[in-house]
Automatic annotation (TrEMBL):
<dbReference type="InterPro" id="IPR032818">
    <property type="entry name" value="DedA-like"/>
</dbReference>
<keyword id="KW-1133">Transmembrane helix</keyword>
<feature type="transmembrane region" description="Helical">
    <location>
        <begin position="33"/>
        <end position="53"/>
    </location>
</feature>
<comment type="similarity">
    <text>Belongs to the DedA family.</text>
</comment>
<feature type="transmembrane region" description="Helical">
    <location>
        <begin position="191"/>
        <end position="209"/>
    </location>
</feature>
<feature type="transmembrane region" description="Helical">
    <location>
        <begin position="73"/>
        <end position="94"/>
    </location>
</feature>
<feature type="domain" description="VTT">
    <location>
        <begin position="53"/>
        <end position="176"/>
    </location>
</feature>
<dbReference type="Pfam" id="PF09335">
    <property type="entry name" value="VTT_dom"/>
</dbReference>
<dbReference type="GO" id="GO:0005886">
    <property type="term" value="C:plasma membrane"/>
</dbReference>
<feature type="transmembrane region" description="Helical">
    <location>
        <begin position="160"/>
        <end position="179"/>
    </location>
</feature>
<protein>
    <recommendedName>
        <fullName>VTT domain-containing protein</fullName>
    </recommendedName>
</protein>
<keyword id="KW-0812">Transmembrane</keyword>
<dbReference type="InterPro" id="IPR032816">
    <property type="entry name" value="VTT_dom"/>
</dbReference>
<keyword id="KW-0472">Membrane</keyword>
<keyword id="KW-1003">Cell membrane</keyword>
Length: 232
């Protein structure tokens, strides 16, 4: 067995559970194609309408194992960042030129319900949605498409896209580099990713609460105005 496979096999391996395969094993057996495989998955998951790929776990695990996989960390970061940016570009272009034609009422993945949720998310947060969505699985795949459908100004899209892609790739990859050798963290990659997602959506929750309070105040003010109006 090659040395890097022997090294990996001696380590505790986090499972991807619902995905049904061991990510470390897949990366180890990719051999010289591992960087291309990682970049391809990041590209597809970022905006090519296939959201059920291990984007967060993939970056974390690849950062953790970059030495064993024979990857230069900076080359890895450049490749996955470029892939993430280009994936969003494809999503934007698909939305811009094809829009809702890609979706159907009862589609398993490409359905109107998923699209409308992403559209609402984008309309509420604008360009910031491109950054926030990077840390929310599934949503990050649809938001670039929604930006294209909404004809969001391309210069602004490119700015937020690049910033979000760099932030996502750097944070998740370095999380694997710095924290992956902690046994508990290695064995609970999926849990860590869930926590990261929950933390990332806290600002969204706070914003929703603020908007709800504002709506309640407007509704109360409208009732007061109605009650205090001239009698018929």
């Amino acid at each position: 067995m090659p040395q890097h496979l022997t090294t990996l096999s001696a380590l505790p391996t986090p499972s991807l559970g619902l995905l049904g395969f061991d990510l470390e094993e897949v990366l180890a057996h990719a051999g010289p194609w591992v960087l291309g495989l990682v970049s391809l998955i990041v590209f597809i998951e970022s905006g090519v309408l296939f959201p059920f790929l291990p984007g967060d776990s993939l970056l974390f695990t690849t950062g953790l194992l970059h030495h064993q996989l024979g990857l230069n960390l900076w080359v890895l970061l450049i490749c996955v960042s470029v892939a993430a940016v280009l994936g969003d570009q494809v999503g934007y272009m698909l939305g811009h030129y094809f829009g809702r034609k890609l979706f159907s009422e009862h589609g398993r993945v490409l359905n109107y319900a998923n699209l409308d949720r992403a559209h609402t998310f984008f309309n509420k947060y604008g360009g910031k949605a491109l950054v926030l969505a990077r840390f929310v699985p599934i949503v990050r795949t649809y938001v670039p498409l929604t930006a294209g459908i909404a004809k969001y100004r391309y210069a602004d899209f490119a700015k937020w896209n690049i910033f979000g892609a760099l932030l996502w790739c750097i944070l998740l990859t370095f999380a694997g580099v710095w924290l992956g050798n902690v046994t508990w963290i290695r064995e609970n990659v999926d849990l860590i990713v869930v926590v990261l997602v929950l933390v990332s959506v806290i600002p969204i929750g706070l914003e929703v609460m603020r908007e709800r309070k504002k709506a309640q105040k407007r509704e109360a003010a409208a009732k007061d105005d109605s009650a205090g109006g001239p009698a018929a």
